[in-house]
Amino acid sequence: MIDPIRFSVATLLALGLAVPAALADEHGGKPKGPVTEAMVTQSLDRWCAGLLEIGKAARSGGDVKAAANRALDESYVLEKGRLLFKPTLTSGDQTFRVDREGALAYFIGGDPKYPADQGFAMKPWVGCRYDTIGTIIEGDVAITMGNVWVKDEKGAETKVDKSFVFERGDDGKLRLLLHHSSLPFTPAP
What pTM value is reported for the model? Predict the structure, then answer.
């Protein structure tokens, strides 16, 4: 039987998404040394902080679009046009997003090209925590899966299932290449 996690890693490697750290350019290439679980934790913390900053801007009347663009720049691989993003609350022809415009519309809404997007980050969320079930690291790519809980202003938490694939950039930070999100399945009684 094929192990689905190992198959996923092999697929990513076959697609050329992982570049071994040992091959880093000595003059301005990717930092040497292994990607670590601590780096994955920092990236998850940064993702949560970005989500909360968008909500903070919404509550205070700040520049929501600027906050969202900062969050996207910090957490997603966008400059290379290689993002695969399946947000939680999407459907139909706009279920999947592959660029900044689609990701931005999901987080803040208001884009006529994405009329169903209400702005996930505009709830606004005031808390964000996560629990991973495991992490696989191969070269400059890290794959993790688990749950994220977001808390609203009344203290109610929403649990979301997440799968993340991070790639280390030239600046050493891990950013999302793939973000898959869904609400947990609840079987009928």
Answer: 0.82
